[in-house]
Amino acid sequence: MKYFLPIHLDGGNRGCEAITISTAKILNSPKEQIKALSNNIPLDTRLGVNKYVTLQKRPAISLGFKIKRKLLRILTHDNFKVTNYTYRHTYLPFLKQASKNDIMLSTGGDMMCYGNNQVIYTNELMFSKGIKTVLWGCSIGKENLTPEKIKTLQHFSKIYARESLTAEVLKNLGLKNVATFPDPAFILEAEICELPQIFTEDVIGINLSNYVVGDYNLDTSFGNEIKKLIKYILRETKLNILIIPHVLWEGQDDRIITNSIIESYKNNSRISALDSDSYNYCQLRYIISKCKYFIGARTHSIISAYSTCTPAIALGYSIKSKGIAKDLCLPKELIVDSKNYTKDELLNSFKYLLTSEKDIRKHLQGIMPEYIGQLKNVLPWLMNNK
Q: Quick one: 171 and 202 in the same domain?
């Protein structure tokens, strides 16, 4: 039996790296039996993903393919057909290697939080061939549902929700094939590495994304809230600030907003940026674990804070952040919805973090072993044919 991971993408999003490696650890199979489709094999090899799975290169987009796709768009004026034509080119060569005894794991995490996409195409392809498919470690809110998503959710053999709010949404659809476990990345251990010089003093780590802020700089409504927070930290505390990019993909690169912030504070030695490209996910987890506090936009940066019992605030805007925090029984002050917040909410949450640090850390230390321990039940659940 082999496992196929068509939506690994690549480690330019350190969350994708984390999901794929932790999934391989949960499956506990030789890497020859776990195949992952990669957009960037050299990067995944540098990060060490190839030690856990067999990487297969995503088919190149040739000039001939581009011409055919453009002709299809002109002749049909049907974006759905054009998109599926692209998906077929990308995923069919990979997935046609699967047999009836294999399993496809759709590992995209929050992919179902966005528009209709390749999760639907790949699942429907495997469903039509009678091959077992699992929506793996997913999040999806009621507001994200579409008729196409509801149909494909019914076609998954099993669904592994990574938090209880998503599980509730899915069960309310009448789905019976749903189980809830923590995100697989919670099982990963921090990898010791050299810390930046800024750790000569206590550090607060901050991860920001254009999704949360609304742009690649802080000239937005929520960006102004972050400016107030940074001003308060520099004026009222002795903390150094380390900005930690976590997604390095073109189009959503955290380094762009990070560099914008650093440029704004270039004369202040207490704020600096981490060269995240030089670290793999588990090394970033180690750096986050050494922060006294952490504030994060990217889900898998926050997971690193939680799993190492680092007091943290999640800058959530969707069900995934709220659901994970709920399952960890964290207070509402530790989640700030960047799309629906009140004035000074972020600053007040940080003040709460300062005054409640010991209680938060103690709470995480108490709940985390049992919470992470739930992941030992994932493989038996996956293998159960019921």
A: no
